[in-house]
Design a protein that fits this description.
By secondary structure, the protein is an alpha/beta fold. Helices cover about 50% and strands about 15% of the residues. The protein has a 6-stranded mixed β-sheet with strand order 3-2-1-4-5-6, with helices on both faces. The N and C termini lie far apart (about 45 Å).
């Protein structure tokens, strides 16, 4: 009997958890399948700063009117071609919503493909804080769930990236600061390069910068 009441209580708590839907956005159609599926209490629309035209304003107004009795709708302006900017702003949103105990779902159907990638990268950086990443098939509006990968790496590799972010010279200076051998630092740098976190000159790539968020 106690187990039964415990399950009931847990189920009640789950129902009470609010959901935030973060969505790349330009038009209504790619957005609505996720909104209808997850019934969010908060919606964060990522709006491309170079596309604030009459059509976009009309679409945003439609969403706000359609959801006005069920969800708070907020717009966040992004530069869709700056993956790091998109990822950083999305990470900040995820952290805030998670800190307020809301379930976070990312919809990457609408808007520019580069904006979609930035949001996906942010979800990788906050894998444990994001419940789902979804994409709506255009022809059927069916939602498919994308895998939640991560930027997980060893402490040493992360420390090397942090040093590179501070413009430390690749091998001698980093080896001294981290108290590692030059050979070990070189080996880690080679692996970071192969994984796409640094370029040929050992400078942070966009993926390397996002991995540090």
């Amino acid at each position: 009997i106690l187990d039964y009441y415990l399950l009931v209580c847990l189920a009640s708590l789950l129902v009470m958890v609010e959901t935030t839907l973060i969505s790349t956005f330009y038009s209504v159609e790619p957005f609505m399948p996720a909104a209808l599926k997850f019934s969010p209490s908060r919606v964060i629309l990522l709006i491309n700063e170079d596309e604030k035209n009459a059509a976009l304003k009309e679409n945003v107004a439609f969403v706000k009117k359609a959801l006005q009795s069920a969800a708070f709708v907020k717009e966040v302006t992004i530069d869709p071609y700056d993956l790091y900017d998109v990822a950083k702003k999305t990470v900040e949103i995820i952290d805030k919503e998670n800190g307020e105990s809301r379930r976070v779902i990312a919809n990457v159907t609408g808007g520019r493909k580069t904006a979609m990638l930035g949001v996906v990268y942010a979800c990788y950086a906050r894998k444990d804080f994001v419940d789902k990443i979804v994409y709506a098939i255009e022809e059927t509006s069916e939602l498919i769930e994308l895998p939640k990968l991560s930027f997980e790496m060893s402490r040493t590799k992360r420390a090397i990236l942090e040093q590179l972010a501070k413009n430390a010279k690749p091998i001698p200076e980093i080896a001294e600061k981290l108290e590692k051998t030059r050979g070990m630092v070189y080996s880690h740098l080679r692996e970071l390069k192969n994984a796409g976190y640094v370029d040929d000159e050992y400078k942070l790539t966009t993926a390397g910068k996002v991995a540090l968020l």
